[in-house]
Amino acid sequence: MKKEHFIATDDSAQLTLPIKQKARDLPEEDNTVKESTEYQRKKRHKSHPGRFPLQSHLPVNEILIEPEENTEGLNL
Question: Is 56 exposed, middle or buried (0-12, 13-18, 19+ CB in 10 A)?
Fold first, then answer.
């Protein structure tokens, strides 16, 4: 099994790049070209209107489940 280790050095030349002028010292040039684009698109209509209603012959059972513990003082 091979293990690799990072050995830190105190060589400060490795941490900096020899750049003559920093980007923040350069004057800002406004060479941007503004253009506007307009287009039209067709909206697709939903092929499915949503949930279908349940059939009327199906039985409906409403079950209310209450907690067994004391819930006084709880923010619900």
Answer: exposed
CA distance 27 to 35: 24
Instruction: Classify residue 40 by its DSSP letter.
Output: -
| The two three-digit tokens of residue 33, written as one number | 């070209």
List per-residue pLDDT tens for the chain, 76 residues long.
667 777 766 666 566 666 665 556 666 666 778 888 888 888 877 777 778 888 999 998 999 998 888 888 887 6
